[in-house]
Automatic annotation (TrEMBL), chain A:
Residues 288-439 form the Helicase C-terminal domain. Signal peptide: none annotated. It comes from Paenibacillus oryzae. SMART domains: DEXDc, HELICc. GO terms for biological process: interstrand cross-link repair; nucleotide-excision repair. Residues 72-252 form the Helicase ATP-binding domain. The keyword Nucleotide-binding applies. Gene3D superfamilies: P-loop containing nucleotide triphosphate hydrolases (3.40.50.300). It comes from the Bacteria. PROSITE patterns: HELICASE_ATP_BIND_1, HELICASE_CTER. This is ATP-dependent helicase. GO terms for molecular function: 3'-5' DNA helicase activity; ATP binding; nucleic acid binding.
TrEMBL record, chain B:
Residues 18-28 have a biased composition (Low complexity). This is YprB ribonuclease H-like domain-containing protein. Residues 131-296 form the YprB ribonuclease H-like domain. GO terms for molecular function: nucleic acid binding. PANTHER family: EXONUCLEASE-LIKE PROTEIN (PTHR38462), YPRB RIBONUCLEASE H-LIKE DOMAIN-CONTAINING PROTEIN (PTHR38462:SF1). It comes from the Bacteria. Residues 1-28, 46-67 are annotated as: Disordered.
Length: 762, 462
């Protein structure tokens, strides 16, 4: 370390300096060095077209990485393929080489590329165009999305060899107008689906149905395209790809790309209040680490979990390093930035002009920003898969790199930071989809019928087609004649069906304080009744607003800034009714079941609670419609003996504490939004007449989340126990069973006791 | 089945989640109500006797007994059997003397020469080689789920005009109907429609693909009369729907017409009940559309052959005269346009129209009239220089500067334009574009001042 400039001579020297800093190291719970890995090459496939060889050697490539060669080989044997590759391993060659090879052999061929976002599609077109130019062949690649000018659409439909689009466009613009795409569908050889791990949950279940429709149309035009998929590292890539495309798939996961040495540092902010279990803010600690890196001139990416945090960290960092770096060299990146600005930032990162970027998970997907040297994660990104993806942004083929993961105080973060082995040894999460969810399926059966009549004996998904057809005949959208079902309705079904419906269900919060009304933020539909009912105090960036009017049908809440000394707390009455038990098992004193249930939730009253003393200073009714949800769920109940051993009140706190822990660690096993799954503890459940904790999928019909939890129940319970046992707080904190205000002074102890005595885990 | 339905209903029971279903159901309700209202209204009016000239062609009719068949027969509908399957057909022959509004069908022969101008290279249009087409469909747009349940055609055959309407009793009859349509299209050199370029024809092509029926490789030359109608009547008619155009310009009065937008619902009613009666109105509507379309083609044909104003009076409004002239010029008939402009000049009109005509004159080199028109615009606007007057001033300024080389006059008009721009600049504080206007005007004025070498004192100042 140079005493005068404060700069280390090299990256390694800087790491040594960090290692010797007692203050920092006292917060480092784990430092893992992942050794560098040599590239594993394979010769260029003998079949590879000469033009492709020349183009590759023009780029200085004379051999392929092993996984690229294997993908090429599997595709040329006619297999559907899913390639699993970490960031920066040359994944695009896995599909571009076989596709270009095929187009070189047959100029009439066509390929369809699907990316989850428009930005990714743009990158891809540039890459393919460059390869085509290097080969000096006329292979036309075009994006086809909402931004495509109408004047060129016709040319793309007829002449584009490779059409790059997204599932939404396929769903609402291409498939319902397939007769305009005869050239494409008649000659469709390949369907490339990148980032397949992004197609999970409700969205993924929709996309799987769009692909069913796509295959149906291709078959109509006599083509049987081959699928080439690419995925980030997840637990079940083959199973997931197979569920998504409905075909047997060959897995290619022998990554042969080289990687420099990688340091993965777990950083837990110090405890500032031991009793309450409060730690120093993860934002401030992230700022500190990122500033150290940036001041060294190390190109760094910071990931934060919300847009607000991105802006906050960006402001802090620009301020902190102002004397060393111009503000324009540290940038933010998130949804809501305009495409041109994003492109500019991506370019700046690639060229090295931009030294630091603070991003939401928007940069997690494969947008090309080159390879950076350091990554700081503000909080655990939610899944092991995302964590590796984000961390992969820092990692060069030759030099070493570092990732700091700064834990927040939420239980999942705390679990991860204290259980590094769990993170490093465990496979990442499973991507789950449930394409046969009846509501999703029926939507797409309508779209499919619009596109082509169904014949008796056709198959679409797992339900009996005749049942679906007869139902839709009764609904007056289909007409049956001569063993076929025809669409017979004036509507255009795809317009009413959004693949990403969850996002559209949000309530918008409009601030009326100034004459120019502005949108403050959004609240999801399920939280709306308790957070933004009329008279609720809604807190946004530390400012209090009162809800003046909630327009429930329009999904808008109108708020005005206020300054009051209370907050509001709404009570939600939840009623669960088990309709059907599909599976059942028991461990120790615990009985667990999986099945169908209905959930009725209704916000009843709200209380006004004084900020300083937490005393109740008033209340009011909430008049909002009851929400009913029919879904799948998993629940486990404790024995009557266990119930008899404690008072009802004690049981209440114990259950609440366990539920709080479980809902936070459930995402360990699922790739889902925390809002996708709910947990409800009941001291005496109607169904079991025993103390019971319920989990349910928060989407009508279920999307497979609770089912997965049912499978991993034992592991889930033992993890919960371990988390509570290892938490350093005295009697409950937000990082384990919840704060004392919620679970009482003995909540932690009672939760632990209950879990131990039922022996559910061992 | 009932088990399935129960499951669906349970899932949808969530109220707010069944979102997409409710509006659809409501839409159904609404359209049912609209049909009822429409029918009640027409019930009051007495059923008008069919034109005596219209003779349903019943020669191919088969004897039938069931009531449904009786209704069909009453409507003049017969069963068509082809080697690809069956569908229904209604054929009505019209003698050439049949008059529909202003025009008779016979006039088509005199209009033919004019109609050639739409596709000059194709030459003469054989009287049996033009096919008029109008589809009635189950929905909107050209998506693959939109089915043409009625293909209405009009053509000349052995000296008679024939309206031929083909109807499918259910979607599986579509293929047979389209086969016949493809054959007929193969025999024609020209296709005539109203909005067919963006609706009927793409839909026909799409349906042929869906049913694997090849169309002739050379498409017929397409005459879409919506386009000239829009060019000429854009501002003079409140709507360019065919029913408006025919009433306002072709002297056609429809009796108890079922609006085309109701056709899908009426067809669904028929599908659900098997009772053909709701379709009678659709047949009549489609028939009227086809006859009007033929007459509209006669109108445009006569206009293009320069004969029309021997038949009917000139349009009254300057707007229509000028737009008509501009369209004729676009079709390569400048000589026919000039008399229309002359007539228009004497009438009153919005200044934007005069600007349009002046722009045309400027392009054509007729500066004499262009200058008069620009001056007229300035006069109309009076003391306040509105946007049109400002534009006229700019044009006049350019004219004097570049053509007459009279810099003083040029400056005078530039200053007037600037005054107008500045007036509005103060009125519209946020109008960015207007502001730029003033900037441009100032530059023009300054340039002219420099050029003229004159120091001029502006009353209004900077």
């Amino acid at each position: 370390m140079n005493r005068w400039t404060g700069k280390a001579g090299s990256f390694e020297e800087w790491l040594d300096y960090i290692r010797s800093d007692a203050e920092i190291m006292s917060n480092v719970t784990h430092w893992r060095t992942i050794p560098s890995r040599e590239a594993q090459f394979a010769p260029l496939p003998p079949l590879l077209h000469q033009r492709l060889r020349d183009a590759l050697s023009g780029r200085g490539i004379n051999g392929l990485y092993r996984h690229q060669a294997d993908a090429f080989d599997a595709v040329s044997r006619g297999r559907h393929v899913v390639a699993v590759t970490p960031t920066a391993s040359g994944k695009t060659y896995c599909y571009n080489l076989p596709v270009l090879q095929s187009l070189l052999d047959n100029d009439e061929g066509r390929a369809l590329y699907l990316f989850p976002t428009k930005a990714l599609a743009q990158d891809q077109v540039a890459e393919l165009q460059e390869l085509a130019n290097l080969m000096d062949v006329d292979i036309k690649t075009h994006t086809y999305d909402g931004d495509t000018p109408p004047t060129v659409r016709n040319a793309i439909r007829n002449a584009g060899h490779i059409v790059v689009t997204n599932p939404d466009m396929l769903h609402s613009a291409i498939l319902p107008h397939h007769t305009k795409w005869v050239k494409l569908f008649e000659n469709l050889k390949f369907i490339v689906i990148d980032e397949v791990h992004a197609y999970r949950g409700v969205f993924g279940s929709h996309v799987a149905n769009v692909i069913r429709r796509l295959k149906r149309i291709a078959a109509f035009y006599g083509s049987r395209p081959q699928f080439i998929c690419a995925s980030a590292t997840i637990d079940n890539p083959r199973e997931h790809a197979e569920a998504l495309i409905g075909e047997a798939v060959t897995l290619v996961d022998n990554n042969g790309a080289p990687m420099g040495e990688k340091h993965f540092v777990f950083y837990n902010p110090p405890v500032v209040n031991k009793q309450l279990g409060i730690r120093k803010s993860s934002v401030l600690e992230t700022r500190k680490l990122a500033a150290l890196l940036l001041k060294q001139g190390i190109q760094t990416i910071v990931f934060a979990r919300s847009r607000v945090r991105v802006e906050l960290l960006l402001t802090y960092l620009q301020e902190l390093v102002r004397d060393k770096l111009a503000p324009s060299t540290i940038r933010g990146y998130r949804g809501g930035y305009l495409p041109n600005l994003r492109r500019e930032i991506e370019r700046g990162l690639r060229s090295g002009e931009i030294r630091g970027v603070v991003s939401t998970n928007a940069l997690e997907l494969g947008i090309d920003i080159g390879q950076l040297q350091a990554c700081v994660l503000n909080g655990y990104p939610g899944t092991v898969a995302s964590t590796w993806q984000q961390s992969g942004r820092a990692g060069r083929r030759q030099e070493s790199s570092v990732t700091f993961m700064v834990a927040s105080s939420n239980p999942l973060d705390q679990y991860m930071i204290q259980n590094p082995d769990f993170f490093f040894n465990r496979p990442p999460e499973r991507a789950l989809i449930h394409p046969d969810n009846l509501l999703i399926l029926i939507d797409h059966v309508k779209c499919a019928a619009y596109e082509l009549p169904f014949n008796r004996g056709d198959v679409f998904g797992g339900e009996k087609l005749e049942d679906l057809m007869e139902f839709l005949v009764e609904e007056k959208v289909l007409h049956y004649a001569d063993d076929r079902w025809y669409w017979m309705n004036q509507s255009f079904p795809a317009h009413n069906i959004s693949l990403r419906s969850a996002a559209q269900e949000n309530f918008v919060i409009v601030d009326l304080t100034d004459s120019q009304h502005r949108v403050l933020g959004e609240v999801d539909r399920f939280s709306a009744p308790t957070l933004i009912h009329e008279e609720a105090i809604y807190i946004h960036e530390g400012v209090q607003y009162q809800v003046e009017k909630l327009d429930y049908p329009e999904k808008k809440a109108y708020v005005r800034q206020v300054d009051v000394e209370y907050y509001t707390d709404a009570q939600l009455a939840v009623e669960l009714k088990v309709l059907h038990v599909d599976k059942e098992a028991s461990t120790g004193e615990l009985l667990r079941q999986y099945g169908e249930l209905t959930v009725n939730a209704k916000a009843t009253i709200f209380k006004k609670i004084r900020l300083s003393t937490h005393e109740n200073i008033g209340s009011g009714p909430i008049h909002l419609p009851e929400e009913e949800l029919h879904t799948s769920g998993y629940w486990f109940s404790f024995s009557e003996e266990a119930a008899a051993r404690r008072s009802k009140n004690e049981m209440q706190f114990a259950l609440l504490g366990i539920a709080n822990v479980l809902v936070h660690i459930a995402p360990l096993y699922l790739m889902c939004d925390p809002f996708d799954i709910r947990v409800v503890p009941q001291v005496k459940a109607v169904h079991t007449e025993r103390p019971t904790i319920y989990f349910y999928d928060r989407y009508p019909g279920g999307i497979g989340l609770s089912e997965r939890l049912y499978q991993v129940h034992d592991e889930l319970i033992s993890r919960a126990k371990a988390l509570i046992a290892r938490c350093s707080c005295l009697s409950g904190c937000p990082a384990c069973v919840g704060p004392i205000e919620e679970v009482g002074l003995l909540g932690k102890e009672q939760a632990m006791q209950l879990l131990t005595e039922v022996g559910g885990a061992e | 089945m009932s088990g399935f339905k129960e499951r669906m209903n349970r899932l949808r029971g969530g109220g707010s989640n069944s979102g997409s279903e409710i509006p659809e159901a409501l839409a159904d309700e609404a359209s049912a109500a609209a049909i009822e209202e429409e029918l009640l209204r027409s019930e009051g009016e007495k059923l008008a006797a069919k034109s005596a000239a219209a003779m349903p062609d019943l020669s191919e009719q088969e004897p039938g007994v069931d009531p449904e068949e009786a209704v069909w027969r009453q409507m003049g509908v017969i069963l068509r059997q082809t080697d690809k399957g069956c569908y229904l057909q209604r054929r009505i022959q019209y003698p050439g003397v049949f008059s529909h509004g202003t025009h008779t069908l016979n006039e088509w022969r005199s209009a033919e020469e004019g109609l050639r101008k739409f596709h000059g290279s194709r030459g003469e249009i054989g009287e049996e080689a033009i096919l008029y087409l109008d589809l009635e469909t189950t929905g909107l747009g050209s998506g693959t789920g939109n089915v043409p349940f009625m293909v209405g055609l009009a053509y000349m055959e052995s000296g008679f005009w024939v309206v031929e309407q083909n109807l499918i009793r259910h979607p599986s009859e579509e293929r047979a109907m389209l086969h016949e349509l493809a054959l007929r299209i193969g025999r024609c050199s020209h296709l005539a429609t109203y909005n067919g370029k963006s609706f009927d024809w793409p839909l026909v092509k799409s349906r042929m693909i869906m049913n694997a029926i090849p169309l002739p490789s050379e498409e017929p030359a397409h005459l879409d009369f919506l386009h000239p109608s829009r060019s000429i009547w854009r501002n003079t008619l409140p709507s360019l729907k065919l029913s408006y155009v025919e009433e306002e310009r072709l002297g056609i009065q429809r009796e108890e017409d079922v609006p085309g937008s109701l056709a899908p619902s009426l067809y669904f009613q028929y599908l659900a009940s098997g009772d053909p009666s709701p379709l009678e109105g659709v047949f009549r509507h489609n028939e009227s559309d086809l006859l009007s379309l033929v007459c509209l083609s006669v109108r445009f044909g006569l206009l293009l052959s320069g004969e029309i104003f021997n038949r009917i009076p000139y349009p009254e409004e300057a707007e229509e005269l000028v737009r008509c002239g501009l369209w004729l010029e676009k079709m390569g008939l400048a000589s026919l346009a000039e008399p229309l402009y002359l007539l228009a000049e004497g009438k009153e009109a919005d200044s934007s129209l005069w600007l349009k005509l002046a722009e045309r004159d400027k392009k054509a080199g007729n500066f004499e009239r262009a200058v008069l028109l620009w001056q007229k615009v300035v006069c109309i606007s009076g003391s306040r220089i509105g946007p049109d007057a400002q534009e006229a001033c700019v044009q006049l300024s350019m004219y004097f500067e570049h053509r007459v080389k009279d810099l003083q006059q040029g400056l005078l008009f530039a200053e007037m334009a600037l005054r107008g721009a500045e007036e509005r600049e103060t009125l519209l504080k946020r109008g960015e574009k207007r502001k730029h206007d003033a900037v441009g005007m100032r530059a023009r004025v300054e340039r002219l001042r420099r050029k003229a070498g004159v120091q001029h004192h502006l009353e209004c100042g900077e």
